[in-house]
Amino acid sequence: MPALDAPRWDTPRDLASLEMHPSGFHGDLHLHELVESLAPWADLFLETGTNVGSTTGHVARRWPSLEAHTCEPHLDAWAAARDHLSGFESVTVHHEASPAFLTDLLRAHPEMTSRTPLCWLDAHAPGVAWPILDEMRLLSERFERAMVLVDDCRVPGHTQFGFDAYEGVACEPSYVLPSVMQPDARVVLPTYADRTSSHHPLRGVMLVHWGVGWSLPEALRDRFESLARDEAITRR
Question: What is the sign, positive or negative, of the torsion defined by CA atoms of 37, 43, 49, 55?
Answer without folding.
Answer: positive
